[in-house]
Amino acid sequence: MSTASRLGMTAASLLALLLVWQGAALWAASPLLPSPAAVLAAMQRAAEGGALQRNIAITLARVAAAFFIAMAIGSALGIALGRSPRLNELFGPWVIVLLNLPALVVIILCYVWFGLTEAAAITAVSINKIPNVAVTMREGAAALSRDLDEMARVYRFGRWRTLRHVTLPQLVPFFTASARSGLALTWKIVLVVELLGRSNGVGFELQTAFQMFDVATVLAYALAFTVVVQIIEMGLLQPWERWANGWRR
Amino acid sequence: MSAITLDIAEKRYPARTGTPAREIFRDFRLDVAAGEFLVLLGSSGLGKTTLLNIAAGLDDTYRGAVRFGTANPRIAYAFQNPRLLPWRTVLENVALPLGEGMAARTSARRMLEEVGLAELASAYPERLSLGQQRRAALARAFAIEPDVLLMDEPFVSLDQPAAERLRELLRRLLARRPASVMFVTHDPREAVALASRIVLLEGSPATVARDVKVTLGLRERASPALADAFLIRMGIIPRTEPATPRG
Ligand SMILES: Nc1ncnc2c1ncn2[C@@H]1O[C@H](COP(=O)(O)OP(=O)(O)OP(=O)(O)O)[C@@H](O)[C@H]1O
Ligand SMILES: [Mg+2]
Known about the structure:
By secondary structure, chain A is an all-alpha fold. Chain A has a domain at 53-214: MetI-like fold (Orthogonal Bundle), CATH 1.10.3720.10. Chain A is 86% helix and 0% strand. Chain A has 10 helices and no strands. Chain A is globular. Chain B is α/β, with parallel strands linked by helices. Chain B has helices at residues 48-56, 90-95, 102-114, 130-143, 160-176, 188-194, 218-222, 224-233, and strands at residues 2-13, 22-33, 37-41, 63-68, 75-78, 148-152, 180-185, 197-202, 207-213. In chain B, the strands form 2 sheets. A 6-stranded mixed beta sheet of chain B has the order 5-6-7-3-8-9, sandwiched between helices. The interface between A and B is medium-sized, with 18 and 23 residues. The structure holds adenosine-5'-triphosphate and magnesium ion (MG). Magnesium ion binds next to α1 of chain B. Chain A: It is found in: Cell membrane. Chain A: InterPro entries: MetI-like, MetI-like_sf. Chain A: Its main location: membrane. Chain A: Keywords: Cell membrane, Membrane, Transmembrane, Transmembrane helix, Transport. Chain A: Residues 56-238 form the ABC transmembrane type-1 domain.
C-alpha cells in the first residue's frame, strides 16, 4: 500500500470513529457524553486563557525529564546486566521485582518519602520506567555479535571506535523499542503522578474537571494531549528510527 | 627467522552441555617463514579455525606461546564470513581499521579501487553480493598493510569463476604488499593454486600429516589435472579418487 492510500485509510477510520461518537452523543443526549462539537468548544475555552497550552507544556516537560532520566539509567543498567552474567545473577531479580511493582505503589512511596515535590514526581515516573528499559537493553546487550567484536579486536579498533561503530549500532533497535514503549508508558504515568500530587499539568486539570463532572473538558485535555504525543512520535521518534535503520535492505 | 611461531602445548575445549571435552592440540608446533604462503588443509572440525584464532590473539585459553618475527606485527584476518559492519558503508568498513580521519578514508578509497569496488564505496554491505563482500573484506585486510595475514576459507560458497577471480586478486595484492599468510581451506586445488607450502592436518589432537613445499609454475597451478597429479604425488589426496571440485 502506498503512503497516500495508507494515510487515506487512517483518515477514513478516524472519521468513522468521529461519526460513531457523534451518533452515540445524539442518542445519549447527556452532558456526560458530550458531542465532538462540545469537546471542541471546551478545548477552545481552555486554550483561550492559555491554560491548555501551559498545562500541556508543564506535563511534557515532566514527561521529557522522566523519559531521559529513565532511558539513561535504564540503558546503563541493562547494558551492564547484559554484559556481565555475574551482575545479572546479582541484580536481575531486583529488576524483576521493580518491574512487577504497581506504578501506583511507587508513586505513593515517592510522595511519602520525598514529599509532594517536583523531584519526587519525576523520580516516581522514572522508577516506573527504568526496569522496562533495562530489560529490553539487557536483551540487546546479551545478543551482541561475538563475530564483530572479534573483528574489532583483530583490527585494533580500541574502546571508543568499538563502542561507536560496533556496539552501539547493534543496540539501536533495542533502544528505539524501549524509547517507543517508554514514551507511551511515561506520559500515562505522569498524568497519575500529577493527579495525586501536583497542582498543575494535564493530570491535575483532568482531576479538577472530573470533580465537577465536566466530561467535555476531560475529553478536550485528553484529545489535545494525545495529539501532541502523536506528533512527537511521528515527528521525532519515527524519523530518527528511519535514519538509524537506513542501512537495512 | 620465522614470521610466526605457533607453539601450543595444549589446547582443549572444556565439556559443555551436549559436547564432551575435546583436546584439539597437544605439543603442536608450526613455523611460518617470512613471506610464506602457508595453506592449512584438514577435514572439518579438526581445529584450523582454532589455530588461526590463537595466532590472531583472539583465543588465549591455551597453554603455549605465539611468537612473531617482528615486534608488534600488524595482523589482518579474513574470516569465513566477511564480518563487515552492516550499518557502515563499504568505505567506512575499509577505513575504520585505519582510524577515523580523512587520511584513513583516502587510503580506503584507493584500496577499494584496487579491488574493483570503487563504485560501491558508499553502499551498505548487505546490498552487496557475497563475492563483493569478500572483496571488501580483502580490501579491509590489505588496507592496514599487514605483516601477517590470516584467512579462514575466505572464498568458500562462491562459484568457481568468482573464487578464481578472488584468488587472482589475492595474488595481485600480495605481490604489491608481501605478507606472511596462513590460509585455511577444504579445497586441495585451491591450496595448490595459492600455496608456497601446504600443511595437511590430521587426527585428534591434530598433528601435521604432510608438509610440502609447492614450487609449481602458474600454468600447473591453474590446471586441475596437473594440480591433482601434484596432490597425489605428495600424498595429500589418495590416488584412487579424484579431488572433489567444490561449488
Ligand atoms: N567455543 C567452542 N567450545 C567448544 N568446542 C569448540 C568451540 N569452538 C570449536 N570447538 C570444537 O573444536 C573443534 C575444532 O573447531 P574448529 O572450528 O577449529 O574446526 P575447523 O578445523 O576450523 O573446522 P571447519 O573446517 O569445519 O571450519 C570442533 O570439533 C569444534 O566442535
Ligand atoms: Mg573453521
